[in-house]
Each structure stands twice: as structure tokens, then as C-alpha cells.
Amino acid sequence: MKLTEVAIKRPAFMSMIFTALAVIGLYSYFNMGVDFLPKMEWPIVFVRAIYPGAGPEEIETQIAKPMEETLSSLSGLKSIKTYSGENYALVILEFEMSENADNVLNDVGRKINEIKRNLPSEMEEPQITKVNINAAPILKIAVQSNIDPMEFYEILKNDIKPKFEQTKGVAIVFSGR
Fold this sequence. Notes:
Helix content is about 45%, strand content about 15%. The protein is an alpha+beta fold.
């Protein structure tokens, strides 16, 4: 028999089938887990190098280019973007989604350790962080002052930043421009 014949000859049977499907659907709907912000790991790594007192050209030639050349040999690398500014360099490494974010972070750390001896000694220790979309920032603060910029930077770096880092629940505090 065809479905239409069954539906016409046995309407009570078809009503029971659709009622059962509706009950199963409602049960599934109310017991289904929903996560509005699913946990995701993107294999994207930031390398931030701070060199106080250096201009953008100096940063580019002494820090950004050597780091970019060294890091470009990593396996699974999809794209690399480098930004140079006054006092800092930022290298953004995007890897294939098949790469493990923790393994990528370790590989980048090894490459940075290899090149450190060729970077300026006055430069601060490079900060290597992976993108953690599950720890999106909840607070961004911009500060401004009328005092000397280098003096203000030192106050922020040595006095204010450590206070924020010691606060419970704070994962990372970026400073600089």
C-alpha cells in the first residue's frame, strides 16, 4: 500500500504516528544541550616583542623581519602577518585548522628561543600567546597622562600592570601601544 492509501483507510493509525513523532520531537527539544558559546580552539598564535625607545623602522629591520623569516618555516602555517610600530612588533601566525593549538604554541616558542640571541639585548622577552576565544576580554582600559610618555610607560609597567595581574580571574594584561 502506498502512504496515501494508509492515511485514508486508517486515519487513527496515522494520527498515532504523528502524535508519537511530535512527542519524541518535544522530548528531544527540551533535553537537547545548547551551548551559546561552544569551546573552540583556533590555531592562531601572537608573538609580541617590545623594544622600548625604538622606532618603527628599527623594529621592522631588527625584530620583525628576523622573527618573520624564522617563523615562516613552521609546518602547517597558513598565513603570517607582521605589524611594526613604535616600541613594538606583533607577528600573527595562523595555522591550518588540523593543527593542535598547544603543539603550535610550543613550536613557536622553540623558534623564538632559537632566534633570541640575534635580537637586540635591550628588547623585552617576547610574549607568545595563542588565541583563546573562550577567554575573550571583558575589560579594556585606555589611559592617558600629561607626564613624559616614557615615565608614564614605566609607571604603568612597574606599578599598575602588576596590580592587575595579581587580581583573581585575570588571565593576561597587555601593556604598550
